[in-house]
Amino acid sequence: MPALAARMSEVSISASVVMTMKARELAAKGIKVISLGTGEPDFPTPLHAIEAAHKAALAGDTKYPPQDGSPALKAAVQRKFKRDNNLDYALDEIMVANGGKQCIFNAFMATLDPGDEVVIPAPYWISYADMAKIAGGKPVLVSCPQNNGFKLRAEDLDAAITPKTKWVMLNFPNNPTGAACSRAEMQAIADVLKKHPHVWVMTDDMYEHLVYDGFEFCTIAEVEPALKDRTLTVNGASKTYAMTGWRIGFCGGPKALIKAMVNMQGQATSGVSSVGQAAAAAALDGPQDIVRERAEDYRKRRDMVVEMLNAAPGIACHKPEGAFYVFPNIAGCLGKTTKAGKKIDTDTDFALALLEEKYVAAVQGSAYGMSPYLRISYATDTDSLREACERIQEFCKELV
User: Fold this and answer.
1) pLDDT, tens digit, for every residue of 113-137?
2) Does the pLDDT of residue 16 top 80, yes or no?
3) Closest residue by Cα to residue 375 from 134, 45, 122
4) Residue 230: its pLDDT value, please?
5) Which of 210, 294, 283, 218 is nearest to 249 (CA)?
6) Do 305 and 389 form a contact (C-beta atoms < 8 A)?
7) Is-contact 309 317, C-beta < 8 A?
8) Distance from CA of residue 321 to its chain's centroid?
9) Helix %, strand %, coil % of the chain (to 5)
10) Is the confidence at residue 256, as pLDDT, over 80?
11) 47-285, what's its fold?
12) How many CB atoms lie within 10 A of CB 80?
C-alpha cells in the first residue's frame, strides 16, 4: 500500500470522538449509556430558522453559493457583530465557512509558514493544536491553572510570545473549562498583545451567549479597538442556536486576511450550503429570547452538576462562568482501584473505567492539555444529567 503523508503522524483522533464511538458501541448492545462527552446542544434548531431553509429551497436557492457567503447571511453577520459586539465590519471583511472550525483552518492555512508558532492557552479545544500542525505551525501551550479560574494570565502570555509567534488563540468562554474573561482581564491580555505588533489574534467566540450569573461577555477587538486590524473574530450558529449539523460558521477580520481565507476555502470546499445559510440568517436576525431562555436552562444544569460532582469523593469541581462544560479535578481518585479491579493512575484510566463500569461517557482532561481532569458536557437533559452524576458519585465511593 502506498504511504500516507508524513503530516498524518502529527494529527490525532479527537478524544471526544473516541469516547463517543465507545459509548455508541455499548449502546448498540442495549446498554443505557449516558454521554457527557459531546459538545452539542440538546435543544432543537429554532423553528423559524428551519422554515427559512425550507422556503429558500422551495424558491430555488439550491445552486452553488458565493465562496465567501451569501449576501443575505453576510449582511446578517454584519448586523450581529454590531449588535452583540459593537464591531463594525465591512461586507468584504466577513466570510462564511462550514462551521467556525473551517474559519480557523482557513486562517491557519492562509498565514502559517513552517515553524511559525501558535500560542494556545491550555486547557484548549483539541482541534486548535492539530490544525496548527497541519498548516505547518508549532503549537505553544500556555497553562491556565485552576487557581486562576482557568483563565489566561497576561504575564504568562507575554512570556510565551517570541519573534516566531504568528498567532495567539483566545477562546473564552472556554472549551473545555467554561472559563470566561471579564473586561478587565481581557484588557490585560490586550495590553500584552499591543506590545507585539507582529502577532495575529484569533478569538473563538462560539459560546458568547452562554454566560451566567450576570456575567458580561466581551471580545478582544471590542475591548481594545487598536487590535482590530490584526484580529480575526470567529463565531457561528452551532452553539447559540443549536445548529451544529447545519455547519454554519462566520468570522470578521482585516480585508486582506479574509480575502486570503476565501481563496483557501475555494480550494477546499468552495461555498457553504445555500439553505443552511438561509437558516442561519433567520436565526441571527430573528427573536433572540430563545437564546436567553436556553442559557438559563444551562445555568440550572451547571449548578446541579457542580454541586453533585463536588459531593463525589475525590472530585473537586470549579464553577465556570460560561459555555456548557465543567472541568472537575479528579486528583483525589488517582492511585485507587475500581470495584471491577482496575487501577486508576491517570484521568484516561478514570474516563475509560467510568464508561465501562458505570456507562457514563466523559473525556479525560489530558486530551485538552491538562491533567488530572475530566471534561463533562451538561448539554443534555436534566434527568440524564442527574442520573449520570449519581453514577459518578457511586463510582467514586466504590474506589479503594
Assistant:
1) 999 999 999 999 989 999 999 999 9
2) no
3) 122
4) 98
5) 283
6) yes
7) yes
8) 15
9) 45, 15, 40
10) yes
11) Aspartate Aminotransferase; domain 2 (3.40.640)
12) 23
- Residues 398, 339: contact at Cβ < 8 Å? yes
Predicted pLDDT at 77? 98
Can you tell me the distance from the alpha carbon of 175 to that of 207, in angstroms, rounded to the nearest whole number? 9
- Residue 263 pLDDT class (50, 70, 90 cuts): very high
**131 φ, ψ (degrees, to nearest 5):** -65, -40
Residues 141-169 have pLDDT tens digits of 999 999 999 999 999 999 999 999 999 99
Domain map (residue ranges) of the chain: 6-44+290-397, 47-285
Nearest to 215 by CA among 134, 149, 304: 149
Alpha carbon of 116 to those of 122, 152, 207, 231: distances in Å? 19, 21, 28, 17
The residues near 322 (Cβ < 8 Å, ≥ 6 apart) are 172, 173, 174, 178, 179, 180, 207, 210, 211, 212, 215, 217
Phi-psi region of 19 (alpha: psi -120 to 50; beta: other; left: phi over 0): alpha
96 close to 106: Cβ distance less than 8 angstroms: no
Sequence-ordered alpha helix ranges (H) in the chain: 15-28, 47-58, 71-85, 100-111, 126-134, 154-160, 183-194, 220-223, 255-268, 274-285, 289-310, 347-358, 382-397
For 37, the grid coordinates are 462527552
Whether residue 12 has pLDDT greater than 80: no
CATH topology of domain 6-44+290-397: Aspartate Aminotransferase, domain 1 (3.90.1150)
Q: Which residues contact 245 (CB under 8 A, 6 or more apart)?
A: none
Burial bucket for residue 77 (CB in 10 Å: 0-12, 13-18, 19+): buried
Task: Name the residue type at position 276.
Answer: G
- Determine the Cα–Cα distance for residues 392 and 150; give it in Å rounded to an integer: 23
Using the structure block, give the residue that is written with the C-alpha cell 429554532: 46
Sign of torsion over alpha carbons 231, 234, 240, 241: positive
Residue given cell 463517543 in the structure block: 20
Mean pLDDT computed over every residue of the chain: 96
Predicted local confidence at residue 299, as pLDDT: 98
CB 152 within 8 A of CB 186: no
**Is the pLDDT at 21 greater than 90, yes or no?**
no
> How far, in Å, CA of 323 to CA of 344, rounded?
29
